[in-house]
Amino acid sequence: MMPLDNDALRHIQWHPYPDRKEMKAFYKRHMPYARMLKKEAAAGLYQGHQLIACVRFRPVGKFTLVTGLCVHPNLRGQGVATELLHRCQGFMAYHQFFVFTDPSLQKFYQSLGFHQSTETPNDIQQLYCRYHSPDRPLKILSYQAPAQFT
């Protein structure tokens, strides 16, 4: 990986299938268990020409699951994930979103407008049951777009 140019402007880029070679390599290096699906929307945050973070949006019935949020290890804790999700808000205004998160990240997602889901749609609940386990407890959070985006 090239040294990061901290003065380079950041921009978001959407990666349609099959144009995801760079994103797949990023996941392989930083989140090797991630598997990208053709049906997912995928966005990357770039600093200059370098991919520094990515996220995917998986359709699940009438809903969308936020998945695969990954930030380059050298940039974690610096607001990069927050910036990426903020830049995706225009997309996020048109769907109901859910995320399955580790309890340690619950406050992070809540700071972005996600909240504890009280009524979880069956499609989301079934998928959650495949990922959640006593060894890997997860929380289901949902997202409601701010009024200015709806």
Automatic annotation (TrEMBL):
One of its GO terms (molecular function) is acyltransferase activity, transferring groups other than amino-acyl groups. Residues 1-134 form the N-acetyltransferase domain. InterPro entries: Acyl_CoA_acyltransferase, GNAT_dom. Signal peptide: none annotated. PROSITE patterns: GNAT. It holds the Pfam family Acetyltransf_10. It comes from the Bacteria. CDD domains: NAT_SF (cd04301). This is N-acetyltransferase domain-containing protein. It comes from Shewanella gelidii. The lineage of its organism: Bacteria, Pseudomonadati, Pseudomonadota, Gammaproteobacteria, Alteromonadales.
